[in-house]
Amino acid sequence: MRNASLIIIAAFPFLSGCVVGTVAKTAVDVVTLPVKAVSAGVDAATTSQKEADEKRGRELRKEEERRGREMRLAEERCRRGRPLPADNCPPAQPR
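^ that's the sequence the OP posted. Answer follows.
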């Protein structure tokens, strides 16, 4: 019984260091939590240059696709002989 008490008493300084370390880590986590929360909010509210460039690239590709569709439809109307006033059809070729 006496040996067990000595072991516990001898181990106490090592265990208290763990407890102090855990308490200190928890205190640091509690202090840094608001900073992390604000940082995450700022990241969510702002757009990085890379994200802005990607968005602009998507917009340009969609616009090019829309123009391409309109050109193909205009060419088809010209080919069929039913152009709209805004269509820029080439003059008819004699056969």
